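INFO batch 0412 | record 1 of 1 | parsing
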Amino acid sequence: MPLFLMMFAVALVFSSVGFKKYVWFISIGYGLAVAAIGVALLIAGRGQLTAGMMCACILFVVYGLRLGGYLAFRELRSSSYNSKMKGEIKSGDGMSVGAKCAIWISAALLYACETSPVTFRLANGSGTDALLVVGMLISAVGLVVETVADLQKNAAKKVNPRRFVDTGLFRIVRCPNYFGEMLFWTGVFVGGITTYAGPLQWVAALLGYVGIIYVMFGGARRLEIRQNKSYGNNPEYRHYVATTPIMVPLVPLYSVEKYKWLVA
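INFO prediction complete | emitting tokens
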């Protein structure tokens, strides 16, 4: 597991931006950590990376820079977003250093586990196989979906900032950006199935995959609660919520608000 520990250290370094602002541990620091792990794997595997492995690492870099850049722009440039989210997200001002360190370490460990399928493939010398290619295709589709969803949401909010978004991908699922995120990490996990060596590697990969799926559903619940407060009296919104799945297209799950164990 030495290479995994190295990637964990990389995640610790780049997610440490959260010490400046608590929420950055799981937002900007998340994107930076994944991108940095992709670069670190490219460096660690230089001279032995197959074309497939190189593409898998580059996907991490593209994913992380896109996410980190988008979140940084929204956080640093959007006064309306900051005003809206004030009170929704804890500032962390009164949080002890010990509590912040616990969150920092836990988040970095999650990022190392999420990316571990590619780390283990490199460490185990597994190279490229059909399942890696399938996994990368799934991840690429997920990356496109979440990128398009973010662009569509921004465009819709510019036209009518006070209306909920139900156009484009939002017509078929209420959280297409979260769905794309889940697709991306599903592809990463699937791409590593043929390379996991021993129970520890399986546990790490499963923890990363299950962990990010949990975080996405928790984020969807938080968003649903916020939108219900903002648009709950709107008949169009109520119809939209009752007829459009919240997380996965065609899967008739329309609400997660009642699941209080989804805390993210």
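INFO post-check: The longest helix spans residues 199-231.
INFO record closed
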